C-alpha cells in the first residue's frame, strides 16, 4: 500500500523516533508547529480515528504511549494538546491514523 506512515513503520522512509513498542510508533513531525510536535501512530494501518475498530484496544495503547511520551518531554506540568484530524474538512493529509502531540507553548482555543 502506498502509505507514507506504513513506509516509516517498515523503515523505507527514515524518521526521528521518540517511542516504540509492539503496537505503537511515535516520531517527530517533519514540519513542526510547536517546540514539541510528535506523531503517534498504530503500527497496523487504519485510515483515521473514525475507521478504528473500537472493539480493539489500539486507542488505549496509543494513549498509554502518549502519556509516557508527554512525561518524557516534561509536558505534564504545563499541559499539551492532542489532535487527530479526520477527513478533508479537518485537514487530514496522511490517511494513516495519527495523533499530533503538541507542546512547549500555549495554544489558542477554539482552533482555526
Ligand atoms: P495531518 O495533516 O494528516 O493531520 O498531519 C500529517 C502530518 O504528517 C503533518 O503535520 C506533516 O508535517 C507530517 N508528515 C508528512 N509526511 C511526513 C514524513 O514523511 N515524515 C514525518 N516525520 N512527518 C510527516
Ligand atoms: Zn499506513
How would you portray this structure in words?
The protein is α+β, with helices and mostly antiparallel strands and 112 residues long. It has a single domain, classed as HIT-like (HIT family, subunit A, 2-Layer Sandwich). The protein contains three helices and five strands. The protein has a five-stranded antiparallel sheet, covered by helices on one side. Strand 1 and strand 2 form a beta hairpin. The longest helix is centred in the middle third of the chain and has 15 residues. The protein is globular. The N and C termini lie far apart (32 Å). The structure holds guanosine-5'-monophosphate (5GP) and zinc ion (ZN).
Low-confidence parts lasting 5 or more residues at pLDDT below 50? none
Principal-axes shape call: globular
The hetero compounds bound to this protein are: guanosine-5'-monophosphate, zinc ion
CATH structural architecture: 2-Layer Sandwich
| Residue share in β-strands | 15-25%
Could you spell the SSE succession in H and E letters? HEEEHEHE
Oligomeric state of this protein: single chain
First-last Cα distance: 32 Å
Number of strands: 5
Number of helices, where a helix is a run of at least 4 consecutive DSSP H or I residues: 3
CATH superfamily: HIT-like
Which descriptors would you attach to this protein?
single chain, 112 residues, alpha+beta, HIT family, subunit A, 3 helices, 5 strands, binds guanosine-5'-monophosphate, binds zinc ion
What is the fold's blueprint, element by element?
Blueprint: H1 4-9, E1 17-20, E2 24-28, E3 36-42, H2 58-72, E4 81-83, H3 87-90, E5 99-103
Bound molecules: guanosine-5'-monophosphate (5GP) and zinc ion.
Amino acid at each position: 500500500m502506498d502509505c507514507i506512515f506504513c513506509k516509516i513503520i517498515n523503515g523505507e522512509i527514515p524518521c526521528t523516533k521518540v517511542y516504540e513498542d509492539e503496537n505503537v510508533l511515535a516520531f517527530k513531525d517533519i514540519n513542526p508547529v510547536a517546540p514539541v510536535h510528535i506523531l503517534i501512530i498504530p503500527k497496523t494501518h487504519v485510515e483515521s480515528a473514525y475507521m478504528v475498530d473500537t472493539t480493539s484496544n489500539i486507542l488505549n495503547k496509543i494513549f498509554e504511549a502518549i502519556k509516557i511520551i508527554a512525561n518524557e518531554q516534561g509536558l505534564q506540568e504545563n499541559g499539551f494538546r492532542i489532535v487527530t484530524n479526520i477527513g478533508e474538512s479537518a485537514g487530514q493529509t496522511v490517511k494513516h491514523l495519527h495523533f499530533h502531540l503538541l507542546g512547549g507553548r500555549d495554544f489558542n482555543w477554539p482552533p482555526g
